[in-house]
Amino acid sequence: MATSLKNLASVEDTKLLWARAENHNLYVDQDDKGVVWETRHIEAFLLQAAILEGVLVNLGLRLLDSRSDLSALKGKRCNWYGYDNAINDLYLLGIINTEEFKKLEQFKAKRNEYIHNLLSKDIKTIEMEVYKVYEEYKNLVLDMIAKLEKKLSKSKE
Known about the structure:
Layout: H1 11-23, E1 26-31, E2 34-39, H2 41-66, H3 71-76, H4 83-92, H5 98-115, H6 123-156
Antiparallel strand pairs: 1-2
Helix pairs in contact: 1-2, 2-4, 2-6, 4-5, 5-6
C-alpha cells in the first residue's frame, strides 16, 4: 500500500469509487426467456474492501505526517503501511473508537475469509454471502470516508 501522501487519492475520487461499488450491487440482464436479475455482489465487496483499506491508509498516513512527535513511527512505517498498521495507529491515536476498531477487525476477518477462499464455493453462494458482509459494513466505510474528509478539511484551515 502507498507510503507517501503524494500517492493518495482525493476524497472525491474515493467517493466516486464508492459509488461504483454501490452500482455494482445489482444489474439486469436478459435471456431468451425474459428478464433475469443478476448480481455483482462479489465485485461490490472487493471494491468495498479496497476502498476501506485505501481510506484507512490515507487517514493514517495523513495523521502520521501531521505529527512531528511520531517521526520514529512514521520512519518505521515508510516501507509498508497497510490495513493492520492503519487501524492500529488510528485506534491508538484516538481517531477511531473501540467499537469502530472491533468492527474494522471483524471486517478484515471477513475480507480475508472470502478473498482467500473465493473459489472454494459456487459463485451464487459466495455472491449471497459477500452481499451480507457488504451490507453489514457499508455504513462503516461511509463513516471512515467522513473521518478522512473531516481530517482533510481541518488540515486546510
